[in-house]
Amino acid sequence: MSGIDSIEAATESLAAAIADAETVVALTGAGVSTASGIPSFRGDGGIWEQFDQRDFHYRRFEADPEGFWRDRLDLREAFYGGGETEPNAAHRALADLERGGHLDAVVTQNVDGLHRAAGSETVVELHGTNREVECVECGHRLPVEAAFDRAAEGELPPRCEGCGGVLKPAVVLFGESMPDGPTIRAHELAGRSDLFLAIGSSLQVQPAAGLPARAQRSGATLAVVNLEATPVSDRAEYDLRADVTEALPALVEAVG
Ligand SMILES: [Zn+2]
C-alpha cells in the first residue's frame, strides 16, 4: 500500500469512528494556525526570535501598565497583525464538524482566536486569546482593537469602563500563572470524550500534553493528526502524519 492509499484508508476509518462516537473533542496546536501565516512561537523563525519576550512579561505589566501598553501600540501591526489573519481550511473543517453535530468542543493551545472566527462555538482557549483584553479587577472582556484604539488616543493604560480596573491582554503572559478554569474544563472534556483528536500539536507543552493520556485513561480512542510524530503517536489508534489543512477537510467530507 502506498503512503497516500494508507492515509486515505486511515481517513475513511477515522471518519467512521467520528460518525459513531458519542462525544468527540479536538485539541489543536500551532500546526493548525501556520497555514494562516501565524508563525509558531518557538524554534527557528519563531515569534520569539523576532520579539523580546521581556516585553510580554507579567512583571512588566504589573510594574508599569502604562509602559506595557505603550509597547503594545508599537507592536500593534507587527505582532497583532491588525486583526487581519484569517481562518484556514483546518479551522473551517472543525467548525463544519461541530455544526454537523460530530464535534463537541475544540480545546486549543493557540491564542489567535481563529477557531471562533471560523465559526466554532465551543472553544476552550488554554492560554487565552490575543483578540481580547480583560479587566484585571472584574474580568470583563472586550475586543483588543477597542483597547488599542483607546490607548492610541492617549488612554494609557486603557481601563475598564465598568469598574476602572486596568485592561490586560486576555492571554497568559510570561511569568503569569495559567488560569485554572480552561485547564479544568479541558480535562473534564477529555475525560468524557470517547474519541479524542490531537491536531497540529507537538504535545510538548502542558497542560495540553497531558490531555491525550487523560482521554485514553477514560477509555477514549485517540487520533493524532500532525506532520510529525508526537510523544503519544505510538499509542494512538490513529496516527495520520499529514498536513492538517488537507487532512481535516478530507475527514469532514468522509464523515458526510
Ligand atoms: Zn472591570
Structure description:
The protein has two domains: 1-38 and 87-127 and 177-256, Rossmann fold (3-Layer(aba) Sandwich); 40-84 and 131-171, 2-Layer Sandwich (SIR2/SIRT2 'Small Domain'), CATH 3.30.1600. With 256 residues, it is an alpha/beta fold. Helix 1 (3-20) crosses helix 11. The strands form two sheets. It has a six-stranded parallel β-sheet, with helices on both faces. It is elongated and about 60 Å long. The chain is built from eleven helices and nine strands. The mean pLDDT is 91. The structure holds zinc ion. Zinc ion binds at residues 135, 137-138, 140, 160, 162-163, 165. Residues 1-256 form the Deacetylase sirtuin-type domain. It comes from Halapricum desulfuricans. Zn(2+) binds at residues 135, 138, 160, 163. GO terms for molecular function: histone deacetylase activity, NAD-dependent; metal ion binding; NAD+ binding.
